[in-house]
Amino acid sequence: MGFFRNIKNYDTLLACAVAFYLICLFTSYSGIGISPDSIMYTSAARSFYSNGTLQTFNHIPIVDFPVFYPLFLGSIMAITHIDPVVFGAILNSILFASLLFTSGWIMNRFVPSSQLYKWLMLIAIVLSPALLQIYTYLWSETLFILEILFFIIAFREYLLKHTVKTLIIAAAIAAISCVTRYAAVTIIGTGGLLLLLDRTLLLKKKIIHILIYGFVSISLLVANLVFNALHTGTGTGPREPSITSFTKNLYYFGTVMCDWMGLSPAQYFLAIPIATVMLLGFIAALSYNYYRRHLNSYENLAITFSLVYGLFIILSSTFSRYERINQRLLSPLFITSLWAYTSWGLLWLKSINVKRTRMIVGTIMTVLMLGFSAKEFLIDYDRYHDQVADDYGNPGYTDSSWMESEFAAYLKTMDKSMFDPTVIIYTDAHEAVYFFSGLSSYLVPHKFFKKDVKQFYQTKRFYLIWFNNLENPELINIKDIEKVKKLKLLKKFDEGAIYEYEGE
Question: What is the mean pLDDT of each run of 10 residues along the chain (504 residues)?
Fold first, then answer.
């Protein structure tokens, strides 16, 4: 025991080791999880490694996603000469362990601090099904969530010292975050809101600091968007208007919170009330801290980010169409919202003067947190059983259904000379075509973009690689195409087929 007493943060180091092990465990069967987004990142990273550019497999600059994560992967690839799909599991194990270490470092500085509270939080974080999902895939959130904690540390340092140096460091982290995930504008918003609320700054100094912070924090994002616009004609890729209302998005937000709280889908009727209470709670807590002039605590930074990020996701989903609000989109909220809704307990316990009462309340809180973590463990165990013990793997392009697919196997080994290199290849899953065959292809157009649909049907010759199990209702489908074009079947499998159109 004497040895451990001499090791600072030994409990955090233990949590780091468990975190590292769990990611290795969940990627032990089929490696790192690969989704369509992962393939975009990977192809851009390979492009950076090969020729110093950040182009996707379609030979255009990566636009739908910011540049820093593929640049990060490409840099590691340049150093190790190992492909991201191969080193992804170890990389994410390191990133998840780093997340646990940073979380522990921050919690050591909570006021008041509690070793028991820290242990309970570390257990909850390391067992979080949402975070374990993120860190078993090749996704930019693995870096972004860590950047959020770095920003919280840096901006608190600024709030304590109010120096230009500390402000620029915090703004620089925000700038890098914005070219990791576009949603990192919420980090800029968090800092900007706290600057506006900070009553310790004189007005003139506040204005100067806001200008410095704003200029530095948006610099890389603006450069990224301008580059995209100049090279592709769009800042963040084609975006469709939302088809979900604010109320529906609030409901989806609440269902994720229900999942995190261990509730079942049968209890989703609580989704909107829970989401509303959570967001109003963040507003109330921030207002209370503003009134007490306690804006410079780690806890308040967590509260502010949770409020800004939560509102951003709900509102942006209401105006712009992208994937439905889910655990992946809200994963950056997990740690900060967990702190926001538990750290108040430390203050409450401290205010209780009767020792017996304090012990009873503390015991109840501890039991509740252990119950929360036990529920997380059961969810993790079910996932382990489904994906590792039953030899399926993380759902995506490396799971058993793809590894055992006759169509995927053919794409890996086919003679690519069957395709005329001057003829365009269309598909309903261009990431899958690239991942399995290495060929560049283009997505059949979205039904929403009528001009693109018309242009597609005017194409006089093309190949079509179609995956039956990946049909996207937003794209024109094979039945739509066959009504207009007489396709020649080149190869057919249960999972899909390859066609050619040579004109009529």
Answer: 52 94 94 94 95 89 91 96 95 97 93 87 96 97 98 97 96 97 96 94 94 97 91 72 87 95 91 95 92 88 96 92 88 96 83 82 90 94 91 90 92 90 91 92 87 88 90 85 89 92 77
Global confidence as pTM: 0.92
The CA distance from 309 to 301, in Å, is 12
**What are the CA-CA distances from residue 248 to residues 23, 65, 307, 321 (Å)?**
33, 25, 18, 13
Return the HEC string of 218-235. Answer: HHHHHHHHHHHHHHHCCC
Strand partners, 465: 427, 498
**Per-residue tokens: 202:** 């004189």
Distance CA 20, CA 13 (A): 10
> CA 218, 220, 226 angle in degrees (round to 5)?
95
Q: Which residues pair with 446 in a beta bridge?
A: 475
Residue 501 phi/psi, 5° resolution?
-120, 125
The answer to whether the Cα torsion of 92, 94, 96, 98 is positive or negative is: negative
Helix, strand, coil content of the chain in percent (nearest 5):
65, 5, 25
